[in-house]
């Protein structure tokens, strides 16, 4: 055994089992404090580590309990002279002469083997956090500019609460190279933790800076812009804030409705799969042709649909009077210059119970001997192709699709689709959906410019360069159903773009999902059928394309189980709800029960971190964010107890900026 090892021995192994060791401490440790050769060490903190030599390796063990005497001893205890014991569980192996820590124990110590306290450099080896920085490289591994530039390998995320003065660090590749979750009750410090981690990442003092990073923040509470103001002012890292308030103003975040795919239209209109989705699919295909450039083609299709509808009615077995009424009713709502009540009324007129000119109607609509008519042979309804169209035109397209189905004998289809039609009419009137309904402009017709800004890219001489690394979509002003829709559209568009990129997985994008339980819930919300489906797919497949999720939530039990199961790193703040605690236990089978029992009593700004980025779970105090996100607690005493007549100091949308409290003391 090395000399230093003998000098830092604190006790001996007196019991060994497959999952637990007992350490009897040496005499003179009446307060579990050891005077080491390098410092004073308090070795009785639950969650700290000791090391036990076993041939050429150390067995690393976590302290899970301490007591003053063996459980089987009896009689009165002499506090000064009584034996003291540590209960420890083995967690891994660390080579004595250098090498990497590995989880799991392959060799057990012998009885009476010495037990050692852990030094800081050994903690770095256990957590694999050396070196902190390394030389940077240029494109394709070439020399970089400047030649002495460095890059971060690890990120300091806080201060250990177990090991005095030790900085808790996470490996950047492992933390950001997979999905992560930041969990905890409201007010426990989740937003500050996220802000602190990104601030540490982006405030590197020397070249190279993290210019290639892309964080798209779905900020449902409007709190992150304040946290990144200083980073933006420094001019090295760009921050873009896109405000979604539901309006169609040019300076607000807007999503053209033709960017939505079929599943998102289903979400928007709450279309049921069995009856309404086929009609919606047909209507979207027709709406694609309602653009100005497709006027002639659209008219031919409208004539075809009207001709098929009317001939279908003429061919059925209903009485002539009913046929005339149905046809004229259709032509009151849908008509073209060629097929309307003026051109058709005489041909379908019923006289004394007979429709005398029915043959003329067929000839006019279908033609004769392959000539004339308006029916298109081998007609195929157009597919939805995300081409620009007027939002209002979708209403006409839905009516045409229903009419087409009715003409083919499905008389109840309009009743089945009434809820979807009502939903669409309501959307036409709602102001908070104006961000979808704006008219097509040249710059908004294509998805390219939209996605470029969403990913912080700007075109410079036909080359896209990074200008922003943090893109915040501020959705504080909109309701949950809008948040669900926008988050699904943004995630799907970015995922599709990265899947088609060549080469793939060369442009990592991180989606930061604040209050994630609101739109990737374990159960569908009342607003939508399956809003979290795209996030489930990103969680399962996003890593191979370079799309990663950072999920922040105060209710892990309400989150999608698929998304949570794919997270490889967790930062867990105070959790008190029994259902949420149960979810944490299921996610972390390697964490001792003692550590999990401490979660309900963790102080604010303290958290447990575990996963791929740290070799062993550890509790730490999160480094302070500066500046803080706009999520600080209300100072109740300061705000309540004050003099009469003080300015309320708040701007409300129904009140002037200088809202003044009443002068009457009884009301102030």
How does this model look, in words?
The protein is an alpha+beta fold. It contains 21 helices and 24 strands. The strands form five sheets. The chain has an eleven-stranded mixed sheet.
Defining key terms:
6-stranded antiparallel β-barrel; 21 helices; disordered C terminus; 668 residues
Topology (elements, then pairings):
Elements: H1 3-7, E1 9-16, E2 21-25, E3 33-35, E4 40-42, E5 49-54, E6 57-67, E7 85-95, E8 102-103, E9 114-117, H2 120-127, E10 133-135, E11 150-152, E12 154-160, E13 167-171, H3 172-176, E14 179-183, H4 190-202, E15 215-219, H5 229-234, E16 239-243, H6 262-269, H7 276-288, H8 295-315, H9 320-333, H10 341-344, H11 358-366, H12 393-407, H13 413-416, H14 418-429, H15 447-454, E17 457-460, E18 463-466, E19 470-474, H16 480-500, E20 509-513, H17 533-545, E21 547-553, H18 561-565, E22 567-572, H19 578-587, H20 593-597, E23 606-611, E24 614-622, H21 636-640
Parallel strand pairs: 14-21, 14-22, 15-19, 15-20, 16-19, 20-21
Antiparallel strand pairs: 1-2, 1-9, 2-7, 3-4, 5-6, 5-9, 6-7, 7-8, 10-11, 12-13, 12-24, 17-18, 22-23, 23-24
Helix pairs in contact: 7-12, 8-9, 8-11, 8-12, 16-17
